[in-house]
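User: Predict the structure for this protein chain, please.
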Amino acid sequence: MEDEGLSPQECAVLALERRGWSTPGAKERAIREELGLAPVRYYQLLNALLDAPRALAHDPVTVNRLRRVREVRRTGREV
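Assistant: Here is the predicted structure, written as structure tokens:
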């Protein structure tokens, strides 16, 4: 994939989201070990990326999937 203005960290966040996670806690461990981020900071970065057109251009499948998940969660909270 061509880099459309994303930082290496932003690319790494999207790459991590593309992976499957077999065990509970594996994703949080990977966030800490591979990216050196606290999970809270990771999710802050991820949410900002989901609203960035350059992230959508970089990885439309992942970004659109995560946008749908986020919207379902937001809608569920409003009820």
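The chain has a mean pLDDT of 91.
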